[in-house]
Write a structure and sequence with these properties.
globular; about 25% helix; single chain; about 80 residues; Ubiquitin-like (UB roll); 5 strands
């Protein structure tokens, strides 16, 4: 299990009620499962993309993406014009 920080942006930040929070998770899929216990955040996260230490997660299965110790995961909702 890795520890790190998850940062929420725009609508994800509003739904989470915080800009960032610590996490303990092995994979991106594990982290997403933990943060989407909040139904408002779950609705937003379905449309989000993720950066792990600045690298895009892309369309890979999130359960195959290991999270390094001390990583920063950015939760990015779609932005207008993007």
């Amino acid at each position: 299990m890795a520890t790190g920080t998850v940062r929420f942006w725009a609508a994800a930040k509003e739904a989470a009620g915080v800009a960032e929070q610590p996490f303990v998770a092995e994979t991106l899929g594990d982290l997403v499962a933990k943060i989407t216990v909040n139904p408002d955040l779950a609705r937003v996260v379905r449309r989000c993309s993720f950066l792990i230490d600045g690298a895009p997660a892309g369309t890979r299965d999130p359960y195959t993406i290991d999270l390094p110790e001390g990583s920063v995961v950015e939760v990015l909702p779609p932005f207008a014009g993007g």
